[in-house]
Amino acid sequence: MRFLLTTLALAGVAAACGDDHTHDARDGHDHAHTKREFPSSPLAPPSRPLTWGALNILHTTDSHGWLLGHQKTSFPEPNYSGDFGDFASFVSHMKELALKKDVDLLLVDSGDLHDGTGLSDGYAPGGVDAHASNQFFKELPYDVLAIGNHELYIYNNTLDMHQNFAPRFNGRYLSSNVNITIDGVSKPVGSRFAKFKTRKGRAVTALGVLYDFTGNDKNTTVQPVEAMVKEAWFAAAIKDEPDLFLLAGHMPVSRDNWPLVFNAIRAVHPITPIIILGGHSHIRDCLQLDGRSMSLESGRYMETVGWMSADLAAPKHERRHEGEDHGSGQGSDTKNITFSRRYLDPNRVTYEYHTGRGNFSFDTAWGRSITKGLEKLAKTFDLSFEYGTAPHDFTINQAPYPSNDSLLSLVEQAMPIALTVNNTRASTPNIMITNSGSLRFDIYAGPFTKNDQLTASPFADSFLYIPNVPAVVAKAVLPALNGAGADERRRDESMEAELWARGYVGTRYREWIEEMYRRDVVEGGEARRAAANLTLGYVTSDACPGVGDDTPHAPLEFHSIPDFIASAAPAVADDAPIDLIFVDFIETQLIGIVNSVQKDKVFTTADVSQYTDILATELLGIFAQQAWN
Ligand SMILES: *[C@@H]1O[C@H](CO)[C@@H](O)[C@H](O)[C@H]1NC(C)=O
Ligand SMILES: *[C@@H]1O[C@H](CO)[C@@H](O)[C@H](O)[C@H]1NC(C)=O
Ligand SMILES: *[C@@H]1O[C@H](CO)[C@@H](O)[C@H](O)[C@H]1NC(C)=O
Ligand SMILES: *[C@@H]1O[C@H](CO)[C@@H](O)[C@H](O)[C@H]1NC(C)=O
Ligand SMILES: *[C@@H]1O[C@H](CO)[C@@H](O)[C@H](O)[C@H]1NC(C)=O
Ligand SMILES: *[C@@H]1O[C@H](CO)[C@@H](O)[C@H](O)[C@H]1NC(C)=O
Ligand SMILES: *[C@@H]1O[C@H](CO)[C@@H](O)[C@H](O)[C@H]1NC(C)=O
Ligand SMILES: *[C@@H]1O[C@H](CO)[C@@H](O)[C@H](O)[C@H]1NC(C)=O
Ligand SMILES: *[C@@H]1O[C@H](CO)[C@@H](O)[C@H](O)[C@H]1NC(C)=O
Ligand SMILES: [Zn+2]
Ligand SMILES: [Zn+2]
């Protein structure tokens, strides 16, 4: 099945240039760049038209720099091949449709614009992460945006958002519970809330809330959500009843603190429509906290564009004018609101289908200029610099671990090759350990570029070591780190909570893709998939009525992975002294483990030194230069 689909994709790659755009938009088209102008394979269209309501929303979240879309031909990447220029054209056409239908259409983003691709992270030394890619974000007509945790790891990034990003949105870049300290003065990074009217005259009160994140840099502040809802400014902001509350925020719609905000508003306004647009856990999710509210979360990495419609009543002031509102101040409509939601695969086929456009009438000059600008940025950052050619796909969860197709197995193999380059300790036997969470994205067959290196391994961690560890002790460390015992499991849970607070979402995302895979197996798996001609992608099961996915898919294979991985142990005597090398992110845990698997010596940070100047972000490139050339 996989093999067949791959062959199909490769056969379809040819088309890149020349459509009926007779003029400017296509001129100066850069043939050197690998970005595909059109889907590289025939894409399945969406299953059905969108349901429009009186108020409609397009939602993005956790884009993490993926503004050039997903450019690989391995499945399901072509599903997400739309770039931000295509998205801009889509937004233009949707705005026109909304005008024609005489309804509201809002555009909302829930944060995490930093960290994830070369466009955000491939800047030259001295630059600021995502400063350049955010210039394209700023071109889109967002009505409301919320700050994400990835805007807060580095003070300069937050400062850039405050000084250069927020002003563009005139008070609609929201950071209700997030401040930055500048010259000793603490102030919101954006605005705490916004009140505005939609085109159709609906009064909106909007907030932008960040989950209880603790990994923020010095001179930035994240106030716990529970404390935020007790603030006097909060009470004042929600006091007057709008036509709807729009709660954007970088906080998952399930299993987090949205109910605190929701209940605080419901205590004052029992029936006012509340729309929640969440993010952060990188999944597609939807639920309703009551019949006059819906909460939507729209995935990650521009693999999803969210859609919500709500059959809201006419704006209050109009109802009053028409004598429908009898002075209760709450409106006459107390019935459940009809909502719809949809998770779109961002690609031109989806965009064209929902805007009634064809391949040749879809692009706008504005959209094309964004695409061209992004391609130019990719060139400036030299993102298509090739380290080598990946012989096949290496995936995090689609292949069993260990195996030749596992990215984790590849990293185990790559560490001893890359980290010993120009290293005086290269000849000392060693074991090298890292955490699987340091890997963020699969590697696909074909050119392995600077951009691919940054998407696969975006965290600039360094490597440390303890010398002269008896081989038998070093060998016991990995199994202990991945520990199966009850003590280890308890520690895992508190470690998990700690990692969550610091912003690590891998576990939650993996639970989601594992669940869809298991469900599919139960429902008949491969056979059903073939009969329905389903292509690979996300298969969402959420708590909202009806089917959420816009294009039906079969789930990707899922294999679970350990939290920690290591290079092969050297063949030496048990008591031979070797180097125990590990990524700095796990230093505290690792020292604890070394002290638990032996009692001859108490190891401390004083025993730890830097092993190499090479960073985790460089490891795969150095490996590829040697092994894939
Ligand atoms: C879109 O246009 C390109 C360029 O002419 C062409 O190669 C491709 O087949 C077209 N796709 C569709 C779906 O018509
Ligand atoms: C998604 O990926 C599949 C392969 O799994 C491909 O066949 C399909 O055409 C892609 N696009 C869409 C829109 O489904
Ligand atoms: C932050 O930015 C300022 C100027 O923009 C620069 O001087 C400083 O070195 C940067 N700090 C870091 C830690 O990058
Ligand atoms: C925080 O800001 C203050 C002044 O605004 C400055 O003195 C201090 O060094 C900053 N702290 C850090 C860790 O950057
Ligand atoms: C955030 O800034 C506002 C405005 O300057 C200030 O009143 C508030 O105390 C700050 N909040 C925190 C948690 O520092
Ligand atoms: C209204 O919505 C709520 C929550 O979704 C549901 O429990 C209730 O049954 C609905 N009421 C009607 C009349 O549909
Ligand atoms: C994995 O790769 C190795 C080395 O290339 C090869 O010898 C082995 O047969 C492969 N294993 C499988 C299951 O393909
Ligand atoms: C290793 O040293 C050589 C010679 O100085 C240099 O060209 C190369 O870039 C170095 N490699 C790494 C990965 O630092
Ligand atoms: C699946 O594809 C085959 C061949 O294109 C077609 O004959 C069949 O009707 C399709 N089945 C469904 C359920 O769409
Ligand atoms: Zn994110
Ligand atoms: Zn996040």
Instruction: Note the overall shape.
Output: globular
Number of domains: 2
SS-based class:
alpha/beta
Q: Assign the CATH topology of the largest domain.
A: Purple Acid Phosphatase, chain A, domain 2
* Annotated CATH homologous superfamily of the largest domain: Metallo-dependent phosphatases
**Oligomer type:** single chain
Instruction: Report the uncertain regions.
Output: 1-36, 325-332
Largest sheet: 6 strands, mixed
Top CATH class of the largest domain: Alpha Beta
Radius of gyration: 25 Å
User: Strand order across the biggest sheet?
Assistant: 4-3-2-1-14-15
CATH architecture level-2 label of the largest domain: 4-Layer Sandwich
Fraction in beta strands:
15-25%
Description:
It is a single chain. The chain is α/β, with parallel strands linked by helices and 629 residues long. Strand 3, helix 5 and strand 4 form a beta-alpha-beta unit. Helix 2 packs antiparallel against helix 11. It has two domains: 328 residues, Purple Acid Phosphatase, chain A, domain 2, CATH 3.60.21; 190 residues, 5'-Nucleotidase, C-terminal domain (5'-nucleotidase,  domain 2, Alpha-Beta Complex), CATH 3.90.780.10. This is Metallo-dependent phosphatase-like protein.
